[in-house]
Write a structure and sequence with these properties.
This protein is α/β, with parallel strands linked by helices. Helices cover about 30% and strands about 25% of the residues. Strand 12 and strand 13 form a beta hairpin. The structure holds shikimate-3-phosphate.
């Protein structure tokens, strides 16, 4: 029997400060890129969660030394850009699309064989979107169901990979990053053009390692690294994850009398779509103490309860808030009027089909409040919400969104709440502290 957690309705407004845990995307990249250097890198505020630990496991299996000083601080020492070694076992990416897709790009140019597996969710997710451009570069990757799914095998190639110009049909940082990482080892520059610019942490961090990249509009070009050109920094400090802060931005907005200060949150403009949409909905959000940390913009974010109203948003802003749709849908349920979300088809291939999952679970709590569309959702606000048993679908962001919904309404019984360990292991202790 799956474990069920009871989320009680908030008895009073949520008040106080929250230290937002390290950014998941940046934590993955910090370990991968440090592992390609040949000097120790001290990583601080690393996200100690299952997804990032999948990356640590894979990098260790490739011969990279990773020593934890404590849960959130580690020293990563690689053997140089050409120093990864053939793994003795199958590499397990767990639930993590970022681990798998970025590592496909990194391993495609290596002179050894690697085989990947993952959990049941990752095994269903499309990998052809990465495999195809890498194949165009000359990589040899084979996978189940017509080279689209795990398990995947990466076979060494005789020639160097070719630098290409790839026009990606999707705005995906995982696709872009995989191609750029393969491009580190290619015979010529590699360019990726996206329909809209996706999160640019790969570009920002690689530039800090001395890699030459140029951006022009929605295109980015990476120049292959020459001998000695890849230089690891001594330290990387990971900012707090705005995708984790998102749950409290919404909770703070919809639970009456709330006033929260979310400390140390990354506000890279490729990630801040949630701030724009919530502000347009009438949320009271202010940025304080804006600063730079580890090459990324960071701020403390104050939020207090507000009367929200429905909005419409679509494809253009989607890459800047792609992971925040479940919790934005919760905000929409408490807003006045309808919220119309379009251009969100990518949600169907996340950890679960999030459009279907949101619609199904909202239907249990507030029948008639939501319509599922092919590429989006229509949410009828000011819904009458009941207490019900709901499922996370084994998806961390669904679990946290439903917990916020329950706390702001009549409570929920949440199945499979453990999935929060993928990105925010301390989420429920924060909830207990605030309640
Ligand atoms: C991520 C990119 C996004 C995002 C995921 C993390 C990354 O995925 O949803 O949680 O770290 O590059 P896509 O590239 O599939 O949009």
């Amino acid at each position: 029997m799956a474990e069920i957690r009871t989320i009680a309705p908030a008895r009073h407004g949520w008040q106080g400060e929250i230290d937002i845990p390290g950014d998941k995307s940046i934590s993955h990249r910090s370990v991968m890129f440090a592992g390609l250097g040949n000097t120790p890198v001290h990583i601080r505020n690393f996200l100690h969660a299952e997804d990032c630990l999948s990356t640590v496991g894979v990098m260790r299996a490739l011969g990279v030394d990773v020593k934890f000083l404590n849960e959130n601080e580690l020293i990563v020492t690689g053997n140089g850009l050409h120093g990864l070694t053939e793994p003795l076992t199958v590499l397990d990416a767990g639930n993590s699309g970022t681990t798998l897709r970025l590592m496909m790009g990194l391993l495609a140019p290596q002179p050894f064989l690697s085989v990947f597996c993952g959990d049941s969710s990752l095994t269903r997710r499309p990998m052809g979107r990465v495999l195809r451009p890498l194949s165009e570069m000359g990589a040899q990757i084979y996978g189940r169901s017509g080279n689209n799914n795990l398990p995947l095998t990466i076979v060494p190639t005789e020639a160097k990979l070719r630098g290409i110009h790839y026009k990606s049909p999707v705005a995906s940082a995982q696709v872009k990053s995989a191609i750029l990482l393969a491009g580190l080892y290619a015979d010529a520059p590699t360019t990726v053009t996206e329909p809209y610019v996706s999160r640019d942490h790969t570009e920002q961090m690689l530039a800090g390692f001395g890699v030459h990249l140029e951006r022009s509009g929605t295109s980015v070009t990476l120049y292959p690294v020459e001998k000695g050109g890849y230089r690891a920094p001594d330290e990387i400090t990971v900012p707090g994850d705005i995708s984790s802060a998102a749950f409290f931005l919404v909770a703070g907005s919809i639970i009456a009398d709330s006033r929260l200060l979310l400390k140390n949150v990354g506000i890279n403009p490729t990630r801040t779509g949630i701030l724009d949409v919530l502000t347009e909905m009438g949320a009271h959000i202010t940025l304080q103490n804006e600063r730079m940390s580890g090459g990324e913009r960071v701020a403390d974010i104050a939020v207090e309860a507000a009367h929200l109203h429905g909005v419409s948003f679509g494809a253009e802003i989607m890459p800047r808030l792609i992971d925040e749709i479940p919790v934005l849908a919760v905000a929409a349920l408490f807003a006045k009027g309808d919220t119309v979300i379009t251009g969100a088809g990518e949600l169907r291939v996340k950890e679960t089909d999030r459009l279907r999952a949101i619609a199904a679970e909202f239907q249990k709590l507030a029948p008639g409040s939501i319509e599922e569309r092919e590429d989006g959702l229509v949410i009828h606000g000011n819904a009458k919400i009941e207490r019900a048993q709901v499922s996370s679908w084994g998806d961390h962001r669904m679990a946290m969104s439903l917990a916020v919904l329950g706390a702001a309404a009549e409570g929920v019984l949440l199945e499979n709440s453990d999935s929060v360990n993928i990105s925010y292991p301390t989420f429920f202790s924060e909830l207990d502290r605030l309640s």
